[in-house]
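Re: that chain you flagged

S.,

Sorry for the slow reply, it's been a week of failed gels. I finally had a moment to sit down with the sequence you sent. For the record, here it is as I used it:
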Amino acid sequence: MGRIETLAERYRSHIALPWRRDLAGPERAIFVVYDKTDERRLRLRLPLFQTITEEAGHTWLACDLTRAFAEWMAQLDYRDSYFEVPEDLELQLESGFLQYLTSRLRDVLRAPKADEDAVVAIYGVASLFGLIRLSALLREVEADVHGRIVVFFPGEHENNNYRLLDARDGWNYLAVPITVHEDRGVYEV
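Prediction finished late last night. Pasting the structure tokens below so you have them in one place:
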């Protein structure tokens, strides 16, 4: 069995458990952590994760962030000047782009089907690297998570510390990690 299929089986074991309803937003997050070299394999196998979710009796909603930066830039009036002086874009990233991402993700999290039995799957987070921190985005929307949020995370997890693309200083997050490595304990859903 390949690494992505192993992740899918571990995800199946976790998502099928009864869900606690009294968890805070950060505790409702699940990170499917995989090697950055497996990004394309994972993308091809996303329907498998959707099927597993639906077989467990949960609704699947997806939020693809792959093209978010390009789409946000395309709507900016001064986009051409940012290409001439990229440093001027930094302030816009910290405010405007984060607001754009937050709004986009909230649209999915607040959809009528995004109830306490739904899974909102977020993928394409590698495209945020160097632009904005995923942790900042998750902090913005954690109160909007009613069911579970599943982040497909190309990077590393060790001792509740997540590192996107293995390159940044990580951050400590309360999410349940699903990895190809041996289980390191029992997690409450």
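What I noticed first: The longest strand covers residues 148-158.

Talk soon,
D.
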